Amino acid sequence: MVKGRQGERVRLYVRGTILGYKRSKSNQYPNTSLIQIEGVNTKEEVGWYAGLMVTVVLFAPSSSPTSLPNQWELE
C-alpha cells in the first residue's frame, strides 16, 4: 500500500468566461450557453470539454467570510 499522495496535484477545473446564449439574428436559445475557456483556441481542443458540467461562481458578500455562493448550470 502506498502512503501519501504521489506526483503532482491534478487541477480539476479550468477558468472561463460566459459570453451569452447561442442565438441567431432574431432568436435566442437560453438552453445553450456560449463559454470562452482559457487556453482553448481550436476546435480540436474543444472536443474534450463538450458536454461537461459548468459551475458559475459568483463573488459576492456573504454571511461568513469563508464561504462563496455559487450556482450550478449544465452546459
From TrEMBL:
It holds the Pfam family Ribosomal_L35Ae. It comes from Castanea mollissima (Chinese chestnut). This is Ribosomal protein L35A. Keywords: Ribonucleoprotein, Ribosomal protein. One of its GO terms (cellular component) is ribosome. GO terms for biological process: translation. Belongs to the eukaryotic ribosomal protein eL33 family. One of its GO terms (molecular function) is structural constituent of ribosome.
